[in-house]
Here is the input.
Amino acid sequence: MKNETMDWTQLNWKAELTNNVVNIDQLKEYADFSAEEEKELREVTKVHPINIPRYYLNLIEKNDPNDPIRRMCFPNADELVVAGDMGETTQDPYGDDKHDKGNGVLHKYDYTALVVATEYCAMYCRHCFRRRVVGRPNDQTLRKFAGATKYISNHPEITNVIISGGDPMMLPTSVLRQMLMPLAEIEHLDFVRIGTRTPATYPIRLFDDELIDLLQEFNEKKALYIPTHFNHTNEVTPTAAEGVKRLRNIGITVNNQAVLLRGVNDTAKDIKSLMSSLLRIGVNPYYLYQCMPVSRVRHHFQVPLKQGIELVDKAKQDLDGYGKRFKFIIGHDIGKLEICGMIDNKIVLKQLHARSGYSETASRLIVQEIDDNAGWVTL
Here is the structure.
């Protein structure tokens, strides 16, 4: 855990957002750029804005240009690359558009509905796979949650809902209440998830008593889970640990979905350290995603699959049973695929979830030959 210089828990979460770094001129106070670099970065911000909280900036080792925290939040000229040797890219790698039912509802798997509740996050991560939505108004952004609730109510096959974004925790607590409480009354829902990166990037939000009271009230009516997103052990700070503790103290299970990122966590030591740090604060390692082939992301963040398999296997050798429970995952257009390993020159995958109408493909094994540089599979 990194030492912190101020007590972030005492700040007003809304007021502190006004101190975020949101442009290149402000960013120059934290890093030196040549004139050419500055010109390139200004081009980058036209396609994916800057938004970095002071809290997260505080985690950066300022004398290290390769600091992993910096890499996840600072714009980079590599984001201008839309084609390269890693293969084709797409703006919609997970197939969201195919499963958009309106009112922010994405219904890809029969039993799960994902609701895009906001396009805003406390921080705009440079590896974001929904970067075409996040930070910019979009017609996929939820406008009428009542319509989403009606859709979910009318589809009894839906057993769970994920409220996602953007980051739903950045909505006012009063708005979150209007979203959550109607879901508590839908009998066929077993549980609800709120996807959020705030424990890692903006744990200040978790020290709002009104928010904690709301989450506790809902959790007493229907099981609530928090999938979060720590990618590096340096994000697991004392403040983050205390924020997670506030969630756990009201009975909420917190699971982590990391992404394998070049220059951030692409060694066995990085993965082992991350998973151990998470367990230390009561967060369950759940998924490690292969970085998706996202436009302006793939060619500088994606790790080749063979390399990823090797480092995950090596990390798991030194992790205890709870540490190695996480699955190495491809979030593919056809569904979620677990990366099981390699046989000779072939990758072995197991399909965990299948799109609606393709239930016969769930639980199948897929064996496919891949080359050394492949970062994705074609199915």
